[in-house]
Amino acid sequence: MHKTAWTQKGSALPSDRIPPKKQTPQPTKAKGKQKDVGPPKSKEVVKLEKLRDDLRNATGKERDPKRGCFCQARMHPLSSYTPICRTCGLILCELNLPNFACPHCGEATLLLAARNALIATLDAQINEAVAKEEEDRTRAIQEARAAEGAFPTLSAAASRASTPGSGSDSQASHPVNQTHKVLSLNSKTRKIKVESYTPPAISRAASAEKVKQPEPEYKRVPAPPAEVVVSRTQPDPQRPWANTRGLNVTYVPPSRI
């Protein structure tokens, strides 16, 4: 027998001395990165998160691209974050966001400590809103599951009869949207018909929202003109309170009935 480097004495076949190849399982390639997609966020949470992120990234000197609002809380509610400018005293409505500078003097409306405190407050509001939405979502699912009920099965009925108080466990083992086989007997043909029944899936409360609509554009009061209109007419000594720029007001006495 022809001997090679891999043959040894006492071997009937050379192939007996060939070490078997170790088969290593090949890792399965993921088709795509699966992201943990949670329930959609409500408009309130998205608004609070955007304001918090803008406050973190802002320096306080940025100007509002929409030029703010000068209604002084006459047309819109007073701002709950920065109701007044500390520098010029301008009353700020809710359209003047705290991450922007004052629309009049251009100074920051919040100090560094006040900004950090506001960011912490927004974080607490976001966590509270998310927890409340999760409770509402869980309550809606439980109410829908209790109203519809799981499809009755013999095993579930037997376990419910043997162990009282295990209704929640049976509902957990038999979800509402589980597919069931239904046996029906035709009275005319005397044949058994097997059908599959799947209850409709429970839609999430947050996913039931309508298509996102663009936020309405609020009417903003522009800044006052830089030049003050001064009347050239001298005031009348007899009527010093008269409006010399025109638009005189005439008193009309009330009519007697």
Detail the topology: elements first, then pairings.
Blueprint: H1 43-57, H2 112-148, H3 154-162, H4 167-173, E1 180-185, E2 192-197
Antiparallel strand pairs: 1-2
Q: How would you portray this structure in words?
A:
- The chain starts with 42 loop residues before the first helix and ends in a 60-residue tail after the last strand.
- The chain has a domain at 43-150.
- The radius of gyration is 38 Å and the shape is elongated.
- The chain is 26% helix and 5% strand.
- It has a two-stranded antiparallel sheet.
- It has 257 residues and is mainly alpha-helical.
- Helix 1 (43-57) runs antiparallel to helix 2 (112-148).
- A hairpin with a 6-residue loop joins strand 1 and strand 2 (192-197).
- The chain has helices at 43-57, 112-148, 154-162, 167-173, and strands spanning 180-185, 192-197.
- GO terms for molecular function: zinc ion binding.
- Residues 1-10, 160-183 have a biased composition (Polar residues).
- Residues 33-46, 207-220 have a biased composition (Basic and acidic residues).
- Residues 1-46, 152-183, 204-247 are annotated as: Disordered.
